[in-house]
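Forum: Protein Structure Q&A
Topic: Joint prediction for protein chains with partners

I've read a bunch of threads here and the consensus seems to be that you should model interacting components together rather than docking separate models afterwards. I'd like to see that in practice. Below is the full input, 523 residues plus whatever partners are listed. Could one of the regulars post the assembled result?
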Amino acid sequence: MTRFFNEARDAYLLGPLRLALSTLLLWNTSRGIVELARGGYFGDFFHIPIVPEAWLPSATGYAVILAVQIVTGVMAFLGVWPRPALLTASTLGLFVLTLDRLQYHNNRYALLLLALLLGFTPCDRSWSIARRPHTLPRGERVASTLARRLFQAQVSLIYLSSACGKLVDADWRSGQVLFVRFASTGEFWAARGVSLPSSLLQLLSSAFFASGAAKLAIASELFLAVGMWLPRVRRFALYLGVVFHFTIEISARVELFSWLMVASYLAFVVPEVRERRFVFDAGSRLARALARVLALLDWCARFEIVPNDRAARTFAVTNRGGRTEYGLRGAALVAEAVPALFPFWLPLYVVSRTRKRERRSLAR
Amino acid sequence: MTTTRRLWPKLRVASCFGYLSVQLALLLHAQISPDFVFGFQMFNASSELKIALFRKVRTSRKHGLVPVKDGTWQAKSVDGSLHTQRWNARVHDGVLGTLDRYVHASYGLKAQLFRLQFALDDVAHHLPGDAETQALVAVVDTRNNGHQDRQVRLTGVKP
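Posted by a regular:
Agreed with the consensus. Here's the joint model:
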């Protein structure tokens, strides 16, 4: 157990994770600033503090806290003392969260906790915009993975808690909560001038569908809590997570929650970099364009991109296990490892597998 | 020095478990908290509530409850001058600040009723120019996840 927590791994991926979380922190603080500018200081009106009332800062004090959060958020984003900056921004954010129950939201709490934990990770060793080199050499990036494990545990706890909360709620378990929400979907879109197909409305008003969706949502969260730790099912868990959060984002108002959770998946990606190869035909314009796009989107530094003057194919992709694929199956291997293309992974994987089967049956 | 170096990894793991234990304790506490504070109930229930506000007044002519229209009322102070009071002057929250109209009860009915009690007490404590109002009463129509409607009455007494 001690070795599991104290192993040394490449910290490269914690850099993009820092960028993502500091962006969300800035977004969250900006909301506070807008609310302060529009509605005034919440302490002057009805509020329910979790901490003693005496701990509430003055309006000026609150404005200073928000300003410090913005400055430290920008510092974390740029990579200027990013770890102390993240710790300061998140600690102040957690303090602000305890000042008023009315402003407390679980997604904000989750963001601040994850940002706090990220501050303990070696997230300053890559993607530092303010420093040259932006990313330290591999030898200097390898560091203890303890805080990253804690970050991962926190993500799992969020899913586990959310799933358990639904499991103990009879209305959630039975699908009643979703049934009421789905039933009002037609009205919601009609008010915005969009009329949904009658077959879809019929489906949404079905108690059976709502019951199934509720059970699926609970099962998905339980699977996400556990599946992301298991290498064999991790990519399916991450894919399910992306689909799950996309569905939530378009169907419910959960502020930053979906973005936060999808960004936090970076902590579950295998930390070692450039273990895959993308070999492309240097003589082909298409292959060169594909290589350029891949270099642009490969935020997780998964690929070593290699030009080949004598390539027989436009491109060849070799995964971590040494398997080389071309064409559609090669594209599936690329999509599997590139965050922006990840939603295309499963469709590409399924299509390429189907084609392979068809070819085999034709050959027989 | 050597002992410290040997103990360091174990201490780090111990602090890790300490953090997780605190998190678990907070999660358990959230389950008994009316508004799930420090829990991770990410998706709202589908409940709704409609708050109708009334004043319990102290005059010789009026008895019982006087309805508050649009969250605004006028009342005399001790010196007899008329003052306008507004519910939204103190309650800025989107759910609790909306009167006489059904709104979505984010974090569930229990959470919103818990907060409404605080809001009534708060407003009742901040009526400086109102010598007539004895208490604020909220009559709340609730729709709990599409189940049968239920009415709840909450009172905030002026000190």
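The beta strands of chain A are 8-10, 142-144, 276-281, 303-308, 315-318, 324-326.
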